[in-house]
Structure formats: C-alpha cells, structure tokens
Design brief:
The protein is built from 13 helices and 21 strands. It is of the alpha/beta class and about 475 residues long. Strands 1, 2, 3, 4, 5, 18, 19, 20 and 21 form a nine-stranded mixed beta sheet that branches. Strands 6, 7, 8, 9, 10, 11, 12, 13 and 17 form a nine-stranded mixed beta sheet that branches. It has a three-stranded antiparallel beta sheet with strand order 14-16-15, with no helix packed on it. The longest helix is centred in the last third of the chain and has 16 residues.
Length: about 475
C-alpha cells in the first residue's frame, strides 16, 4: 500500500517531488524514469506525481536518483565524543555509516549516525549482552592478534543472527592463512562472515587475490554467507607506531643494522620508503615535512630512512599517521568484480575546514564518488546499476537494515541525487580536503542534508532498526 493512501489530502503533506528522475533503485536492476514523492521521512510514491502538490519540486530529468550510500567501514568512533561536522561524508552521498570495524578488543558494532556510535565490549557487559545486541548492534567485530575471540560473545551474536566482521591479521605476507582463520571461525559458529578491507598490500603475485576470492566462493558454495569491503585507492594509512613494536624499540635504537633488518623483515619495504609519507605533525616544528616521503625526510636530515622513521617516532609519537602506497589497482578491480564486495572508506568523517597539521586520506572525501568515476566510467569494472547496489542494498542486506538501501514506497527516504557523467572525487593525496563533483543533493530520512548550493547542514542522529 502506498503511503499516500493513508492520507485524505496528500497534496498538503508532500515534502518533495523529484520530477522525471532516472531512478536506480539499488536492486541492481535497470534504471527507469519517473517521479518520486516524499512524505515526512518516507518515500510516498514512485510514479506520476503531476497532479500532486509539494513544498518543493526538483527537476531531476538529467540526474540519477539512488538510495543513500552506506559506508560499511567507518572510523568516526575514534572521535565519537567530540563535536565535529559530517560534511565530508555527506558530500560523498553517505547517509549511513557503520562504526567500530577495527578495535583493540572484541566489540559490538552498532549502526549510528555520522556523528558517532555506541561501542560495547561484550567481555565487560555481563548482564546486558543479549539485550544490547538486540537494541541495535549490527555485527560482531573480531581482529585476530589483538584479543582471543570470546566464545560467549560469539554464541550470543550467532543467536541474534548478526554477521561476524573480521579484520585480517596480515594482508602483506600471509593473506591466505589469515583468510583461512576467518573462514574457519565463521564455519565453527555458522555465522555470516564479512571481511573488512580485503586487499593485498605490497603484493607482487597478481594471482593471490584470485585465490582468495576462490576460497570465499568455496565458502559460499557450502551455504555460508560471505561478503567483504574495500576502498578504491592504492594507498593505505597506518600509524607510525606500527613500524616499531614496543618490545623491539630498546633493542634497535642503538643498532643500525638490527633496525634496518627488523623493518625490512617486518614490512618488506626494501627500497619503498619513497612510497611512505608523513600525514600529521604536532606543530610548526615539523610542518615543512608534512606530506613528504620518509625517503625525502631522511635525505633532508642526512639520515638513513630507518633512522629518520625512528626519529619521527620520538618527535611525534606512535599515533602519527603515515600514508603508504602499497596496493595495486588491478587487485582492487578484481575484488570489486566479486558480487559480494561493497565499499567502506576505512576512515573518519571530516569537515571541510582543513587542519594545517593533518593531511587526511582522500578516501574520507572521495571513496564513493571514485567508485563511479574510476571503476564505472573509466575502467568499466561495474555497470552503474551494480555499483549503486554495492553502495546501498548489498550492505543493507549484509547488516540487516530495515527499510533502507532500496528505493521503494514506504522506505525511509535516504537518497542521493547525482550526475552519472560528472560524479567524481577531487580529493588527492596532496590536497585531500576537497568535495566531490556531480552530487546535487543528499537526503537523510527525507531531509536535505547536503546540496551544491546548500552548504553544510547537520542532522539529528538515529539508531537503525534491524529486520
């Protein structure tokens, strides 16, 4: 039943009518052109609205109207108590973000708004575990190597029907072994499995990603649901401290040979220091080095690359971000060819007020537009309709979101309006704080939250219901 049928005088209640939009509904099916009307938070009608009145009418005949994009791998929980803007995410068409994919302990992920989310450690919440999961947790996150998975938490998550999200322990040297660990855990507890950030860092063997996908396909063939996410860039970001395990610091500080051997064996960088750059500093003292490669910083300081990295650790601290160009675009395209792969930015939400001491990864501002510009228009890896499905209905089905991810009558009006010819990321590694092109409007629960002439608009938070 259309929501319009519930109202005697719908013309007085319609909020927005999109006229003659090319609707890509998120299902992966062919687009179709028609009108779409909103009442309150919901989609009221898909079809001819020429006889109806509304507060706003939008001529959308040259534009795509799609479900709002769902970021399945966000990290704004790292700053979830701080006031901040969500403009960077909204400008990219993101209307829902899933937080808590990576953590230092076994946690529950809860779908929330772009300003943060509740994170629960099941090992500490003894009496309310099941209740808290049923209140809105959409997945159980496990990172091998940080803490052993709690059997009690896994049983509760299994009973609640939520998926297991695994952050692989090693995507550089032991991708297949790490993947097998995740698959074995999912089979043991008979849980749907989602691999966070599936990729192969510094990989020279182009066949390895194909082998990984074959193992995921074999897992699915046995009746176990599986999915994964990635961001469409060849550079990753990690903290400087990841180069130096605390237990090794005292041993390598005064031994150049041991320092070089430890970093080479641990990370396989070899002569790749030119691909690693500094992305954050504390103050003006290191400002001239912001954005520079470790190789360039070492040359400037007349140090070895290993010794320069250690000096930066002492000066800036272990949480200092580094950008590492360590991925291969052919691998990204291969993973995207899998029908169960969706998009996660693996980053926080930022405002457009640039921080003079921080260069964020461009994925925070351009992951979803880049999917369309690079992998739909340029490489033809995906058709546009399929790309929209990867950003909407697919993640909604993986994490059990109700009435989101599809354009259908009665669904929540999370929508993005964009030009398929021009949608593109403009954020670069050198200048990452830039809005994408081609996105005309973004709506959350029927309310306009971003537009090319609207500026930055905040919106109230919400917790999503599960099926």
């Amino acid at each position: 039943m259309s929501p319009l049928s519930s109202f005697r005088k719908p013309s007085k209640l319609l909020k927005v009518i999109f006229e003659k939009a090319s609707i890509v509904d998120g299902s992966g099916g062919k687009r179709f052109s028609t009108d779409l009307a909103l009442i309150g938070e919901r989609i009221a009608r898909i079809g001819d609205c020429s006889g109806l009145e509304a507060r706003h009418r939008i001529d959308a005949r040259a534009l795509i109207l799609a479900p709002g994009f769902i970021d399945v791998h966000a990290h704004s929980e790292q700053r979830w108590l701080e006031p901040r803007s969500s403009a960077g995410s909204l400008a990219s068409g993101i209307t829902t973000a899933i937080e808590g994919v990576r953590s230092d302990a076994l946690t529950v992920e809860q779908a929330g708004d772009l300003r943060g989310s509740l994170r629960l450690n099941l090992a500490l919440v003894a009496s309310a575990q099941r209740e808290e999961i049923e209140r809105g947790a959409c997945a159980l996150s496990v990172r091998f190597g940080d803490a052993p998975p709690s059997q009690e938490a896994l049983r509760i998550a299994k009973d609640s029907g939520i998926p297991l999200v695994v952050h692989l322990r090693d995507r550089e040297r032991e991708l297949l072994a790490a993947l097998d660990e995740a698959l074995a855990l999912a089979r043991t507890y008979e849980m749907p499995l989602h691999i966070a950030r599936l990729s192969y860092a510094y990989g020279e063997d182009r066949a390895l990603v194909h082998v990984a996908l074959e193992r995921l396909d074999a897992h699915r063939a046995r009746g176990f649901p599986v999915s994964c996410d990635l961001f469409p860039y060849i550079a990753d970001e990690s903290p400087l401290g990841a180069l130096f395990p605390p237990a090794t610091l005292s041993r390598v500080r005064n031994d150049e040979t041991t320092l070089a051997a430890m970093l080479h064996a641990r990370l396989h960088y070899g002569d790749r220091w030119e691909r690693i750059s500094l992305r954050g500093v504390r103050d003006e003292r290191n400002l001239a080095e912001l954005g520079a490669s470790i190789e360039a910083i070492a040359a400037r300081r007349r140090l070895s690359c290993e010794r320069a990295a250690l000096a930066l650790l002492d000066e800036l601290g272990p949480e200092t971000p580094l950008l590492q160009r360590c991925l291969n675009e052919e691998d990204l395209a291969t993973i995207l060819s899998a029908e169960f792969a969706c998009i996660g930015s693996a980053d926080a939400s930022y405002s457009f007020e640039a921080d003079p001491f921080r260069l964020p990864h461009p994925r925070a501002f351009g992951s979803f537009p880049r999917l369309f510009s690079r992998f739909v228009r340029a490489r033809h890896t995906l058709a546009l309709e399929e790309a929209v499905r990867r950003c909407s209905a697919l993640p909604a089905s993986i994490f059990g979101f109700r009435d989101r991810g599809l354009i259908q009558e009665g669904a929540f009006a999370d929508l993005v309006l964009f030009d398929e010819r021009t949608i593109a990321d403009t954020a670069t590694y050198e200048h990452p704080v830039r809005a994408p092109l081609g996105i005309s409007g973004v709506y959350v629960n029927g309310t306009a939250v971003y537009g090319t002439t609207m500026g930055e608009i905040a919106y109230p938070g919400r917790i999503l219901e599960r099926q």
